Amino acid sequence: MNTTIEINTVALVTRGTSGIGSATALAFAPEGAKVVVSGRREKEGNEVAK
Q1: Is the dihedral of CA 9, 30, 26, 5 positive or negative?
Q2: N or C: at which end does the chain have fewer Cβ atoms within 10 angstroms?
């Protein structure tokens, strides 16, 4: 990702258990953001959260 995440940034990702939501959550986390994932599929959500 070609962006800078500021200190104390929180990303709220809706529909984060699959597709672009999952990809977005997985992109923000290594950049230092605290990521909150919301979605309807518990099993897939747990996988994204790892």
Answers
A1: positive
A2: C
